Amino acid sequence: MKKLLFIPLALSTVFVSAQSLSRKAVFAKGQQLERVAAVKMNFSMEMMGQAISFDNNNTITSLVEVKNATAKDYAIESTVKRVVMSMSGMGQEMNYDSDKKEETTNEMTKKMKEMVGKVSHLTVDTKGIIVASDDTSNAGEKADGFMGMANSFANTGHKPGKNYDLVADLPEKAVKAGDTWADSSVSKEGKTTTNYKVLEVKGAEAIVDLDGTMTQSGETEANGMTVNLSINGKIKGQYTMDVASGIIKKRIATMDATGTMDMAGQSIPFTMKVTMDEGIARK
Residue 171 sits in which domain range? Predict the structure, then answer.
């Protein structure tokens, strides 16, 4: 009798260990998801013999709604619902919460206020690739200082041809626990290389680990001044995904970077650490 009981148990163990992941995006019309992304940045540099450090924390809450679903793609609408920001440095502090209806004259908090209520529309195919998008938040304009850089780490932009960041970016070939693969992307701003490994596939969820490198150069703005930046960073992170739909449920990542910024005829070295913690839940 014990031997008979062992057979289904053994078969069950083999099935679980061999469970695989395939690239897919499965949404339903009317489905709503709430995204809450918390990004923390510490920036340090030395200028004219003085050590300068800034801390910047942003939390952005968005509502994602599937407006239509067909056999080949999905029409998705994303709306920014709340922005919370706190920044400190050089003896000063600045705070903003869009839920508090306060008037502001500060340029940075004005930009935060303009984000709230912003709506973007995407068309995503059943593999999770963006087919069409009217989201121009990362379409080449100058980021607003180092806060913009931190936010760009959390959001790679919604350009057609790219993977939708709510969907696990798996390879075309099915993968299982222990499998690895690599991906890279090149743009006019720089290059990113990422290595992935499936840590676990258990029941309805899977955990994927990632690490990689990024190089980036370009212009940003700080206090109305144009600054030329060059950055080299290392990225480590992990995400938990829903096996059946391919939708990411939780994502954490850290970037440690060094670089230089050229401004007012000087080349100033800096270090930067950015951490992101994002949760995605059904409404």
Answer: 20-282
Residue-level length of the chain: 283
Which is nearest to 100 in space by CA: 79, 118, 82, 115? 82
Strands 119-125 and 143-144: unpaired
Amino acid at 140: G
Cβ–Cβ under 8 Å, residues 93 and 135: no
Structure confidence by residue, pLDDT tens digits, 221-241: 666 678 888 999 999 999 999
- Residue pLDDT, tens place only, 39-64: 999 999 887 778 889 999 999 999 99
DSSP codes, 125-146: ETTSBEEEE---TTSSPPEEHH
Alpha carbons 175 and 126: distance in angstroms, whole number: 18
Whether 160 maps to a domain, the answer reads yes
SS3 label, residue 13: helix
Q: Is 8 inside any structural domain?
A: no
Among residues 208, 203, 201, the alpha carbon closest in space to that of 182 is found at 208
The dihedral built from the CA positions of residue 236, 239, 243 and 244, taken in this order, carries a sign that is: negative
Please report the pLDDT score of residue 190 as a whole number: 85
Q: Are 164 and 155 in contact (CB under 8 A)?
A: no
Rounded-to-integer distance, Cα 42 and Cα 56, Å: 7
> For the chain, what is the domain count?
1
Among the listed residues 183, 239, 171, 241, the one whose alpha carbon sits nearest the alpha carbon of residue 214: 183
- List the CATH number of the domain containing 39: 2.30.230
Question: Would 40 be classed as within a structural domain?
Answer: yes
Nearest to 27 by CA among 192, 205, 248: 248
Within a domain: 26? yes
